Each structure stands twice: as C-alpha cells, then as structure tokens.
Amino acid sequence: MNNLCADIGYRSLIKHGEQLCGDHIDVIEQEDGSQVIVLADGLGSGVKACILSTLTSKIISTMTAAGISLDECVNTIAGTLPVCSVRGVAYSTFTIIRLVNNETAEIICYDNPEVILLREGKNVEIPTTELNIGGKKILQSKIDLCENDVFIALSDGVIHAGVGMKLNFGWLRKDVIEYMEDLVDVGFTAKTLTTILTDHCNELYGGEPGDDTTVCTVKIRKREPMNLLIGPPVDRNDCNKMMSLFFSKEGKHIVCGGSTSTIAAEYLQKPIKPSLDFYDPEIPPTAEIEGVDLVTEGVITINKVLKYAQNYLEDNESYTQWSYKKDGASQIARLLFEEATDINFYVGRAINPAHQNPNLPINFNIKMQLVSELAECLKKMGKKIKVSYF
Amino acid sequence: MKITVCIGSSCHLKGSRQVVEKLQALIAQNNLSDKIELSGTFCMSNCQKGVCVTLDGQVYSLAPDTTESFFETEVLPKF
User: Fold this and answer.
1) How many domains does chain B have?
2) To 10 degrees, the CA torsion angle through A264, A266, A268, A269?
C-alpha cells in the first residue's frame, strides 16, 4: 500500500421530461481494499433504462467484488438482462474502473465514451487492448496510478450535449478533455470537477438534457489527515489527556467551541486572539491560537457545516458559498470536504448549562447529533472517519 | 479603555453581532477610535447573562437595544 487514495465524485442529469435516470453508478469497496466503480448507461431512457443500468451495474459490481472474471460477468449480463421489445437488444453499456491497492487502475469499457485520464493536467491516452467477449467488443486497459491523476468516466449524454441546439454535432470527447484540462490544476475535488462538467453539459442542453448525462471523476491524491476537536470533556480532569491525544495527531488541527478553545489555549499556553469580523452575519467570528490551524465557535458553526455537507451530497450548489467565503463554517467545509481524506473527531460530552435554556435553539442532544450526522455525511463523501468521545 | 464583547455561541444567538456593530458605529461617531479598543472574546462562562461585555474588567449584560444607553451612561462619561 502507498500513501495514495481515491477521491470519487459523480453526478447524473436526468433526461428532460423523465423522472428516473437511465444511467447508474455503483462504487464498492472490495475486501482487499480495492475499489470498483461501475457506470452503466441503460438503453433508452426512463424506467426501462433505469432498470437495465441498475441491473447491469449491480451484477458487475457484485460479481467483480467476488473476484469473478470479466468474461463471466459479461456473459452473465448478456444472459440476464431482459430483451428490449422495440430494439431487440438487451443491454446497457458500461464502464468499469477498478483501483487495486491505489497502485493500478484496470479499466473496462463497453460502448461508453472512453475514460479520460488527465495526468499533470494534460490528457494521456490510456493504452487499450480490444477483447471480444460473446461477440461484444470490449476495451480493456491497465495503468499505474500517479498522484494527481484524474480519471473521468462519461455516459454518452455528455458528448451529445448540445447536439442540434447550441452545437451542430455536440461537443466531442476532445472538447471535454480541453474543457477539463483547464480545471484540474486548480485543486478542485472530484465532486466539484463533476459538478462543473455536468453543469456545463446542462447549459449546452439549454437546461433540458436530451439524454441522461453522467460524469464520474476519480482523483488520485495523497492521504491528508485532519483533526477536529469540539466540546470540553465530561470530566474536566480529562482535559490534558484529551488535548495531548488531539495535538499529537498528524495533520491539521481544528478547534470548535468557546470553552473548548480556552482549554486548548491553556494546554498550549498561548493566548486566544478572537477576531470581530463577521464575514457571514449568521456565523460567529473565528479566532487564532498559535499551534492551531483554525479556531471557531462551536454548535452554530458546525450546524452550518452540516448543512453544507448535506448539500454537497445532493446537488452541491452551496459550493458557490463555502468554496471562497471567510467565515468559520466555510473554512471548516473547505478543510473537511476538500483537503482531508482521514478525519479524527475528538468530541467532549460536557454539558454547557447555558445551552439548556429552552429559549435557545441549541441543546446538548443537538450538538451530539450534529457531530454524528456530520461524520455520516463525510463517510458518504468517501472519507475515513474516526470519532472518539471524552 | 478596553471593551470586550463575548462572541461565543449563546451570546451570538442573543445578538452579540448587533452589539459589536452598534459599538463600532458609536465609537466612530464620537471619534473615539484611538481611545477605545474594541475586541472579542470566546465564552466568558456567564452565558445566562449574555450578551456579556466587559469594560475595564467590569462585566455588563447587554442586548442590542440596550447598547446605546450603555454607551451613553458607562462609556461616554469617562472621557
């Protein structure tokens, strides 16, 4: 194992007028730690396409996860899927990316646009071999991973965007490559790159996608640990233990909460310097302690971070807020969503008597709930999370 | 003279931002920017009495609508 990990982000646009998406993405982790990503595009659109693509991706991901060979997977798919009564064919196209030990990527592509690889910000054509399995032409490739590699898997809705509307022939794979080459160096996460690309497709379609459009981005990056401390320990005698565990951890350190930061400052024997800049009227100002990367207020800030996290997992539209703003919540969002891959939460369970006031919209249970919900969201973003209570 | 306003969770919810903004405006109006140092602090462990403000070591309990009278009765006479 090396020090790399995969940041995976995907999003689909549903064909205008349909309620279900005919593209389907599955990401599963195998027992040996390798990850399998399947993007299936069902024939047609709506319910039928949705069933075809869901079946296909589930069959592939479940079978490959069990270590069954590709031949068998493809044969199973050909034998299992119902035949379309209109077209007389029974399949959905698919792309499989398997990341083995974060060292190599195995890519299998059947009739989808070929996977794009951007290395050092430039397009690299992945060497492929053509296989013939059961009369189906399948492209297979294997490539060693480097830090900052960006793989982009597409459904054909992406390269058909704008056909006959804003563009005569849609934008081609090479146009997608050109568009993305300008963006990968900025340091966006996989999810953000995906959002930017699908938003652009939607725009080319004039807001009414003519086909299901799916993008899945896989960014290979270094592991980045991050530590977040919130709340004083129940037993104040545990302060030193909690602080020494927290500060001995590798990676950046975030301290949330007024009393919590006072304890941290005492431990470090450094003064707290609070600021009075209200960048966002809802969020209390941040502070500085030498030796801590970010000091913020507690529950109100974390509540906002949770809202951003929930939105990140949906349409990610609040990205336009937290990606640049200077308030505490936006800063935490950038550190947790973009920078971190492994996050350690140190949660103190002391009860703040002031928060027990029924007139205030916060209480102890909410605080504990906020942390566990946030941890859940971050897990869904593909982060490794550890929560320790004190 | 030093005025410190608590910007912890409870005080924030009780309006410490408005208190800070009012004090900033009042200080500017009275041309006292070079004489008064306005700063923030995290929790002063007196949350029930928020918004907590200290003036030269003495603790006051303010609200956005009492800020102006506090400034007139406690701050201005000292100049």
Assistant:
1) 1
2) 150
CATH number where B32 lies: 3.40.30.10
Q: What is the mean pLDDT of residues A59-87?
A: 76
Give the C-alpha separation, A375 to A248, whole Å.
21
In a domain, B79, yes or no: no
Place A135 in a pLDDT band, splitting at 50, 70 and 90.
confident
Distance CA B48, CA B6 (A): 12
DSSP β-bridge partners for residue A287: A274, A295
Going by C-beta distance under 8 Å and a sequence separation of 6 or more, which residues neighbour residue A301?
Answer: A256, A283, A284, A328, A329, A332
Give yes or no for a cis peptide into B51 (omega within 30° of 0). yes
Which positions in chain B touch A357 (Cβ < 8 Å)? 10, 48
Residue A258 to residue B9, Cβ atoms within 8 A: yes
- pTM (predicted TM-score): 0.77
Contact A300 B13 (CB under 8 A): yes
pLDDT one-digit tens code per residue, A225-260: 999 999 899 888 899 999 999 999 999 999 998 889
In tens, the pLDDT along A137-180 reads 888 899 999 988 999 999 988 988 877 666 656 688 888 999 99
pLDDT interval class at A302 (50, 70, 90): very high
ipTM, 2 decimals?
0.76
Which residues have CB under 8 Å from A65's CB, separation 6+? A28, A30, A36
Best B22, B23, B42 member to test A by mutation, with max A CBs in 10 Å, is B42
Whether B33 maps to a domain, the answer reads yes
A interface residues, B as partner, C-beta within 8 Å? 257-259, 261-262, 272, 274-276, 278, 281, 284-285, 287, 297-300, 352-355, 357, 360-362
Domain residue ranges of chain A, discontinuous segments joined by +: 4-222, 225-389
pLDDT at A230 (0 to 100): 93
Token readout for A298 is 């507690």
Q: Which B-chain residues 30-59 have CB contacts (< 8 A) with chain A? A: 38-43, 45, 47-48, 50
Query: Considering the domain boundaries, does residue B32 fall inside one?
Result: yes
A281, B17: Cβ pair inside 8 Å?
A: yes
Domain of residue B51, residue span? 2-73
Residues of chain A in contact with residue B51, where contact means CB-CB under 8 angstroms, are none
User: Topology of A4-222 in CATH?
Assistant: Phosphatase 2c; domain 1 (3.60.40)
- Pick the residue from chain A with its C-alpha nearest to B13: A360
How big is the A-B interface in CB pairs under 8 Å? 72
Instruction: Suggest the residue from A273, A275, A276 to mutate for an interface test with chain B (most B CBs closer than 10 A).
Output: A276
Return the amino acid letter for A162. G
**A364 pLDDT exceeds 60?**
no
The reported pLDDT for the residue numbered A353 is: 67
For residue A143, the model assigns a pLDDT of: 93
In this structure, is residue B78 part of a structural domain? Answer: no
